[in-house]
Amino acid sequence: MSPKARNLLVVGAVLILLGVLAFALQPGEPKAVCTSENGPTSGFVDAEQDCPISQESWNEIADYRSSPKPFRIAGLVLVVAGVGTLVAAGLSARRSNRTE
Question: Going by C-beta distance under 8 Å and a sequence separation of 6 or more, which residues neighbour residue 40?
Fold first, then answer.
């Protein structure tokens, strides 16, 4: 294997590792905050806590769900770039074996 192919292989593996790490670092959805018995609610109920969710808490949850997830987008780009680099490394290694 040529040094160029070996370097591409290492770069591709690092890109994939960073992409998977970026997926793992995406912050999770905010926790639901329950309202008091007589307080205003959003109309939604938290299934885990079995209580009505406050309007402010629901707004935060809805905002999180509808917003783009930058870490996941970056992770996807890194994984795709890593796979492309691995393919390039394979092609480079194959080509260098033919010329020798």
Answer: 54, 55
